[in-house]
Design a protein that fits this description.
Structural class: alpha/beta
Largest sheet: 6 strands, mixed
Order of helices and strands: EEEHEHEHEHEHEHEHHEHEHHEHHHEHH
Bound molecules: pyridoxal-5'-phosphate, zinc ion
Oligomer: single chain
Radius of gyration: 21 Å
Number of strands: 13
CATH class of the domain at 81-107 and 213-388: Alpha Beta
Strand order of the largest sheet: 4-5-13-10-11-12
CATH topology of the domain at 81-107 and 213-388: Rossmann fold
């Protein structure tokens, strides 16, 4: 086993690998999983990974599991990486790749990449029920992996969560509890519930340190796809900021292992109507301060108070030399349309990186000749009602061959 335990990012306390932990017991800060990188480096040549079965678990030595027999998987990860020249031209760069966690994961969002790890830990620890708070995608992912493991699930969502996400979770057998309020309000109550130990459920929400680790596989997949080089810029939609913080950790590990020579710059994109990380970045702050949530199409990114994790994401963006941006509602719709022009059906929250790049180019934070990867994170089917409003289904119905021919000739 190469997973060696945890350390606290606040007080440096350490914990053994077999502990069932959420936050640091001493200071309630976030925990970071540690590995024996020297042994991984000695034992596992990077070329060996290409021969393994595809997906997140290809990187099992770099994930915090102790019992491989307990792995709960639906075939997540190794999502498409597509060069998109039309989008590149539209946003002002020469080389843009879309990494589609929206169309390449089992439940249609990036959350599968991390929930596969927390579901595995729940199975290892012997829990019967998985739980989370969620703007919708995490809920359907937790429900799916619970079903796959033969476990129950309970999910807490804002009252106005997109219907397809709620329906998907219920379909997989979740008990869905709708709570009045926006995500960060519900998150505060949910964390209180979990930490009170009033319920014996396994938390797959924001504090779970095992779950975070699944997100590192973005870095591994990109590096491998580019022949153990990395892109110049990685652009990711940011809600709590876990994805950015952990993708950055993954790139750091690759360098430490000697598998790559450099790291990319990390860019976070949010909706301006609820963009605490972007706002704090622009203000030059070190800590992410909460914002007031205004309505936004990017409902999955609407974490008004990302807390400690947001601050970690901000630190990753800074350390990498990247940037953060909050984009307008029109720019969000523009991103959705540009992705559709390349055949990609992406929910508004998952699409924001496209307009994000245009912003970064305009601000001189990304330059034309750089290799840019935009992660897109949720399928259009996940927020179908929003996207349906953007098109008009014809009223007219033709009947019989003659009308069909006439209609065809009018195209
Ligand atoms: C959860 C989510 C994200 C990213 O969330 P982080 O908390 O920043 O990791 C991005 N896009 C979509 C569609 C999501 O559901
Ligand atoms: Zn601590």
């Amino acid at each position: 086993m190469y997973f060696t335990g945890f350390h606290c990012v606040g007080c440096d306390a350490t914990y053994p690998a077999d502990r069932d932990l959420l936050l640091c017991e001493r200071c309630e800060n976030l925990l970071e999983a540690d590995y024996d990188y020297d042994r991984i480096r000695a034992d596992l040549p990077r070329e060996g990974f290409a021969q393994r079965p595809h997906g997140v678990w290809r990187w099992v030595e770099l994930l915090p599991v102790l019992d491989r027999a307990k792995i709960v998987t639906l075939g997540e990860g190794d999502t498409p990486l597509l060069r998109c020249d039309r989008i590149a031209a539209a946003v002002g760069v020469d080389e843009l790749w879309v990494k589609s966690d929206a169309t390449g994961n089992p439940t249609g969002s990036l959350k599968d990449r991390s929930i596969t790890v927390s579901a595995t830990k729940a199975a290892e620890f012997g829990y019967r029920v998985l739980a989370c708070d969620s703007t919708g995608n995490k809920a359907s992912s937790v429900a799916a992996y619970a079903a796959r493991a033969g476990l129950g699930s309970v999910v807490f969502c804002p009252h106005d969560t997109p219907v397809p996400k709620m329906a998907q979770a219920i379909f997989f057998g979740a008990r869905l509890i709708r709570v009045r309020g926006h995500y960060s309000q519900i998150n505060a109550m949910y964390r209180r519930l979990i930490h009170s130990k009033s319920v014996a459920w396994y938390d797959c929400g924001t504090d779970n340190p095992f779950r975070y680790e699944g997100k590192k596989t973005y870095a591994y997949e990109m590096a491998q796809a580019f022949g153990w080089d990395v892109p110049d810029c990685v652009v990711h939609p940011a809600s709590g900021g876990m994805s950015i913080a952990k993708t950055w950790k993954g790139f750091g590990e690759l360098r430490r292992l000697g598998w790559t020579e450099r790291s990319p710059r990390m860019f976070g994109v949010q909706a301006a109507n609820c963009g605490p990380i972007a706002r704090s970045w622009a203000a030059g702050a070190d800590i992410v301060a909460p914002v007031e949530k205004k309505p936004t199409l990017a409902s999955a990114l609407a974490a008004a108070d990302p807390g400690l994790l947001g601050t970690r994401a901000l630190a990753a963006i800074r350390a990498s030399g990247g940037a953060a941006a909050g984009i307008s509602e029109d720019e969000i719709l523009d991103s959705v349309r540009l992705l559709a022009s390349e055949g990609l059906f992406i929910e508004p929250s998952g699409a924001v990186t496209i307009a994000g790049v245009r912003r970064m180019v305009a601000a001189g934070q990304i330059t034309r000749g750089e290799r840019v990867v935009c992660v897109v994170t949720g399928s259009g089917f996940k927020d179908f009602e929003r996207l349906q409003e953007m098109v008009t289904i014809p009223e007219k119905v033709v009947e019989g061959y003659d009308e069909m021919l006439a209609e065809a000739q009018s195209v």
